[in-house]
Amino acid sequence: MLTARFSRAAAPVRSLMGRWGGWLAGVGGLLSMGLGVWVHSAQPSIVKAALAAHRFYAWSLPGFLVCATLLSLSGFLSLKRAGWIPAVGAAGAGFLTTTMAVIARDGIRDLTLLAKGFDVWQQPVASNWQAVTIFLVLFVAGVGVIGWMAYVLAKAKGVARHA
Hints:
Blueprint: H1 2-6, H2 11-41, H3 45-53, H4 60-80, H5 84-115, H6 129-155
Helix pairs in contact: 2-4, 2-5, 3-5, 4-5
């Protein structure tokens, strides 16, 4: 959706990208909410109780549902109202939805293991700095490649059509 709003592509291409982006964000947010509730309901009662009682993980499911709702609303709003506000709103809500889903997943994992007697927070940690360095270098290179692709896409000109 952001690419549709800020690219120099032809108007029909931007319109198509905006429509598809709006539908994907709207439907994706709804599907995420349904799957999030389903995953939470499938947890054993001891894990649900531990999630509700934990000071950090207790807000992860409600926060996820709020962010996924904002994602859906932003996506569907972009179908009715063109502009940069719904596109930026959907991008921000998508980021926050993913962040909240990761926090909820971590809480489910940590508290499930804790219920079985394995406390992940009490385990010794020994960092492998060589692997961390390789990851960071490749991550920065990947972000650079994605930035270059976005730059090329933004500067691209349409293909001339011959009759």
